[in-house]
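=== Structure Prediction Worksheet ===
Name of assembly: unnamed complex
Input type: mixed (protein and possibly other molecules)
Chain count: two
Listed entries:
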Amino acid sequence: MPSLVTAHKATRFGYGIAGPGAEDDLMPALLAPPAQSARLSAERILEEHSRRRKLAAIPRDKRMQAQRDFGRWLDGLYLADQHAHLASAVIAPSPFFSRLTEFWANHFTVSSQTRTARGLAGPYVKEAIEPHVLGRFEDMLLAAELHPAMMIYLDLINSVGPNSPFGRQRGKGLNENLAREILELHTLGVNGGYSQADVTEFAKIMTGWIIDRPKGIVRFAPRRAEPGTKLLLGQTIGGKKAGQGDYPAALRQLADHPSTARFIATKLVTHFIADTPPAAAVDKLEAAFKESGGNLPAVYRALLDLPEAGQPTGAKARTDFEFVVAALRAIQISTPELEPVKSKNGRLLPNQLSIQALNRMQQRLWGAPSPAGWPERAEEWLAPTALAQRLDWIPEAVREITDQTTAEFLDRVLGPLASERTRKTVLAASNREEGMALVLASPEFNRR
Amino acid sequence: MLTRRSCLHLFAAAGLYSAMPALTLAQAPGDKRLVVVILRGAIDGLDAVRPLGDPDFARLRPETTGGIDLDGFFSLHPALAPIAPMFKSRELGFVHAVATPYRQRSHFDGQDILEKGIEENNQHEAGWLNRLLGVLGTTEPSLAVDIGPGSDIILQGPNRHASWYPNIDVDLTVESAQFLKALYEGDPILEPSFEEVQRLAGAKMTSPDVDPAISPRELAQLAAQFLNQDARIAAFSLNGWDTHVGQERLITMRLKSLSEMLLALRESLGGNWQRTAVVMCSEFGRTARFNGSLGTDHGTGGLAILAGGLLANGRGGEVITNRWPGLGDGQLYEERDLLPTDDVRRYPAWLIAKLFGVTPAQAGTTLFPGLDMGSDLRLI
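=== Predicted Assembly ===
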């Protein structure tokens, strides 16, 4: 059985004491991440482009079926991505890496609630988030904001410089959605010291960036970019002619802003330590962020070095994703059992044990209600209905358990974390399955 | 679609219901009812209720023409046609050019402030409907119900309330229920949540088939079921008003479902509709002009919608403005948004004062700290 401090750390920064990598030292395990993935979105965009072209060639009266097939193709890809993502968290050699990936994916939320961004939500996490979890904040910021999924989700593709050649010709103009959310949610924070004028100027700076679908790439199209210099937070950006370096330069300026260091430090401490983040802890992470120039492993090091890191867990609740992944690690599921299910007519359906579980609980994977992502406070989502869904799902997971006795399962999954009361209650259950179900239903398993 | 997989339930068996404590009967303060609907994402008031009578409107919004005339000045968006007769019969009214005290343009802070009823965001503040429960001194959780998938901040706080989402499908054996109760004792979230699960399992509400994507019409039907029993306060949200791109198509869809929701609420409430007031608010308004992608960006002054049988005795059939701010040069807020000329919180505050006998002083302090109630709005 792991020591109590190890168990608390594994629960606070990972998925608990069961499963791969649970008892490893957090930092060394973190620094050996899984291999990077290929560029998926490019392929996605190219294939989507060619399918759409074929679709457009079909006479209008015969298009219905083809449109349905197209929708199914896209849904199938999305479903496959979701299942693969959840399964990879279940077998992740560094649970901390997986948790950090979830943190950043939530920080830079792209939600499939906007249908058009849906097909790219999976590639987005693989390409824009994962490769930079152990890198610099600035690089993740650039990768996220210039990823086609984000450009679609927050309407950058619909924003045009009103005085650009294209804007004048077509009478099109700015859409300030992404500009505002970058300042408010991704960098400075809502009280980070920007004005409406900064939002508008920033929106002008980012015009010109488009998704070139026939080529499957994101690129700068000068004809759509707003000309003239812009003033962002007191700094001049760009010259008479807009350049493709302007938007990245503005993003770098934001990444380097002291408000960003404070905002990111606050969010990390709130996520991993407590909803009301201790000021001293935030100060330490903020300092690490500033001193390292936003080098994220240095910030994680400061996080793990906090006196709070090994303190008793339980102040926060596991998100639905964390709960399901922790449970699947606890029951030692094998990944083939986590794949999408094929229906009788050949359609792919979400697996009851993995993605369908999240669909039924409150927090769908990549389905946050807004660009702010899922809120930190459990009161906002661990509602009675969500608890009911957890209780309803647990028996299905329990059927997969191979441990012989309840006591064995309890020790393996909660170990030193189980309170005397939980231990007593679980062992008093009248049969093996019910006792194991109670382990997964216990406060210790639902909190972190 | 989800099916009851009762054969798989380890926790499952008959017997729980009989073991449930009988639901206590209503200790409701009277028989008046309040429904609060949060329109999340910031509804475009200038499109929903169009000030066609303002000569500057056509200049500012050449994209927006026509509508159903309400009073010679304002016209209704065509998608609200199904509820236009309610305006005539004075069961529907609007409040234009209103806002909370919030003057920035973040959805998230804006919604927090709207739901907490306060002037500046404070993460520890309870929702104003929750504080109302404290004022009413009720301990009966079934008095107020939060309907829908999430948990709306407006009802969150120290005072117990019910919540309901039709996706509940859990049966517990008496034994399991006792074990879980023991496990959760003292847990600030899990204990009250579990009590609520048990209560709901026992209440056996009929609900639409368990489709997680519940429609606004179904939300209204569920709210009415509760209001026809013990509940006197119901809250839910309609999402998707953040129309940055292609507004015409989007807002038409949303306004249609809003109409369906309101009609379903009236129908399902039956006779109780005459004892009901509905208020719908949004975090802020949208820009007075269209943006570059045939949509609107975050703005300031906006719209509130009032409805219910009680309105016929008050200001149903009216588009209320404290003062129409105008849309001309120099009249817009920061040269881009409709200028708010009244605090939107006054409307729920006066409704509550009349519905539940809360004194205006209490409404202006405990519920909406810092609010100047002004003179009686005589809404109902």
